[in-house]
């Protein structure tokens, strides 16, 4: 039952069921603790995850590969890579799944070199990688800007391990080239490997075009997605943002009209933070939280401080044709900024903050949070839908490459 709740994204109910089980005197075996750890990781409940860890220690369970893998994944998803590493080092009889989990954890934090080091250690232990391991390696190279290394491992997986590339491997390579600004190479790779029918690779290219401001390939990618009937809300928004950034308001209007005609709805951005066993969720411009007045008052003062430190709003990212001052206001109250402001006013000075977001963190918020970490002398970990960002002393672990 606990595993079933987890598999259906109902983590809080999984934990409630687990607590009920304990009250009824049913012993907590390793298998169920693996599922409970997964629930904590998926929901980002680090304190509950630490309690599960303590439960494992108290009961004297060995960190076998499945349990260690679940605990490594839990700590990683909760923004504590150091704890994940400690569990990994303590694990007995590491199997390919555990090695892959640790490797994926480094990849999600943008630590490509460390991911490659884990891969090399795995090979030295005579553990053969599988398809998922290679996805993790290629993803690590992509997020770390390691183009030559990515090329090497893509060849290695076929020539040494006999693994036939799948859609995810191909997409990692498109992402590798795209993030590095090698858009011609990414486009040619798609065509040369006959993967033009895969919508995901065009979405990846479109996302890179937004970063590198390549309008021609952006139009090509969006046209391909429409042909494949895979132009979802994220793709439309990416294209709309590109038009807005270049002040092409008529094109933006036409695209938004097309979204309405096709009944495509933009997924609202949400950010949340766990404090004292409660989740606090925010959307942009949110005024529903009980402490909204305090949050906005603090955020207004903080943004003034950030500007004094050199922060400048990325008003070019606002997709509406409105005055500059209104654009600044629109950016100021994004959901992640509200969640961070609430975290700061609700915790003791110096307490690290862990924020979770259902979409990709925007460029303006990313820049602002760097300044926030320095202005408040706090570590701020943000987990968006793609990766982790560990902000400290005015810089981010992704090195502005995400």
- From the alpha-carbon coordinates, what is the Rg to the nearest angstrom? 22 Å
Question: Secondary-structure element sequence?
Answer: HHHHHHHHHHHHHHHHEEHHHEHEEE
Total number of helices: 20
Q: What's the story with the biggest beta sheet?
A: 6 strands, mixed
Which regions contain 5 or more consecutive residues with pLDDT less than 50?
319-329
Number of β-strand runs = 6
Query: Residue-averaged pLDDT, rounded?
Result: 87
Strand order of the largest sheet: 2-1-3-4-5-6
Calculate the terminal CA-CA distance, rounded to whole Å.
Answer: 37 Å
Give the helix proportion (percent range): 55-70%
Helix vs. strand class: alpha+beta
Shape: globular
Strand content: 5-15%
Protein model, in words:
The protein has 402 residues and is α+β, with helices and mostly antiparallel strands. The chain is built from 20 helices and six strands. The protein has helices at 2-7, 11-23, 30-43, 46-59, 65-77, 81-90, 96-108, 112-124, 131-144, 147-159, 167-179, 183-192, 199-212, 215-227, 233-245, 249-261, 292-309, 324-332, 335-346, 363-376; strands at 271-275, 278-282, 353-357, 380-383, 388-392, 395-396. A six-stranded mixed sheet has the order 2-1-3-4-5-6, covered by helices on one side. Helix 7 runs parallel beside helix 9 (131-144), helix 8 runs antiparallel to helix 9 (131-144) and helix 10 (147-159) packs antiparallel against helix 11 (167-179). The protein is globular. The two termini are 37 Å apart.
Would you summarize the structure shown here?
This protein is α+β, with helices and mostly antiparallel strands. 63% of the residues lie in helices and 6% in strands.
């Amino acid at each position: 039952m606990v595993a079933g709740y987890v598999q259906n994204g109902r983590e809080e109910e999984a934990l409630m069921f687990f607590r009920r089980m304990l009250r009824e005197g049913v012993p907590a075996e390793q298998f169920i603790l693996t599922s409970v750890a997964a629930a904590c990781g998926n929901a980002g409940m680090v304190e509950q995850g630490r309690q599960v860890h303590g439960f494992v220690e108290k009961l004297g369970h060995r960190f076998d590969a499945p349990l260690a893998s679940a605990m490594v994944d839990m700590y990683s998803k909760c923004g504590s890579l150091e704890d994940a590493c400690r569990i990994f080092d303590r694990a007995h009889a590491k199997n390919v799944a555990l090695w892959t989990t640790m490797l994926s954890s480094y990849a999600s934090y943008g630590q490509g070199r460390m991911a490659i080091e884990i891969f090399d250690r795995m090979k030295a232990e005579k553990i053969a990688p599988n398809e998922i391991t290679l996805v993790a390696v290629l993803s690590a190279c992509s997020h770390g800007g390691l183009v030559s290394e990515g090329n090497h491992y893509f060849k290695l997986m076929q020539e040494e391990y006999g693994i036939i590339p799948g859609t995810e491997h191909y997409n990692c390579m498109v992402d590798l080239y795209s993030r590095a600004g090698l858009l011609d190479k990414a486009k040619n790779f798609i065509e040369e490997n006959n993967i033009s029918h895969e919508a995901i690779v065009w979405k990846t290219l479109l996302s890179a075009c937004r970063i590198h401001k390549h309008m021609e390939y952006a139009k090509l990618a969006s046209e391909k997605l429409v042909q494949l009937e895979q132009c979802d809300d994220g793709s439309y928004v990416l294209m709309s943002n590109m038009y807005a950034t270049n002040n092409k308001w008529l094109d933006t209007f036409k695209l938004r009209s097309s979204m309405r005609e096709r009944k495509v709805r933009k997924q609202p951005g949400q950010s949340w933070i766990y404090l004292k066993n409660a989740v606090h969720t925010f959307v942009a411009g949110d005024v529903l939280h009980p402490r909204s007045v305090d949050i906005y008052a603090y955020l207004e003062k903080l943004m003034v401080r950030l500007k004094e430190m050199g922060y400048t709003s990325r008003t070019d990212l606002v997709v509406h044709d409105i005055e500059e001052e209104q654009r600044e206001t629109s950016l100021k109250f994004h959901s992640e900024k509200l969640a961070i402001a609430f975290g700061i006013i609700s915790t003791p000075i110096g307490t690290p903050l862990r924020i979770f977001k259902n979409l990709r963190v925007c460029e303006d918020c990313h820049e602002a949070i760097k300044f926030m970490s320095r202005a408040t002398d706090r570590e701020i970990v943000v987990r968006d839908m793609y990766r982790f960002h560990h902000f400290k002393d005015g810089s981010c672990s992704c090195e502005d490459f995400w």
